[in-house]
Amino acid sequence: MTLSLIFDPLFHLPFLVGLVLAPLVATLGAYLRLREEWFASLAFAQVAAAGGVLSAMLYLPLIPAALATAALASIGKGVLQKAGNENYAILFLLGWSVALLGAANSPHGEMLGKAVMDGQIYFVGGQHLTAALLLLLATGLLLPWLSPRLLMAQLFPDHFSANHLAGWRYHLAFDLLVVAGIAVTTTAVGVMGSFALVFIPPWIAFRLAVGWRSVLLVTAALALGAYLFAFAAAIVLNQPFGPVLVCILVVMTPLRFLQPRQHRLPLLRS
Amino acid sequence: MEGVPLLECREVVAGYGGPVIGPVSLALSPGEMVGLHGANGSGKSTILGAITGAVKIFSGEIWRRSDLKVAHHRQRPVRPAELPLTGEELLRLTGASREDAPEPLTALLSLRLDRLSGGQFQLLHIWACLGSAAELVLLDEPTNNLDPEALMVLRQMLQRPRPERAVLVVSHEAGFLDDLCHRVVHLRCE
Question: Which of 235-264 (A) contact B at CB < 8 A?
Answer without folding.
Answer: 262-263
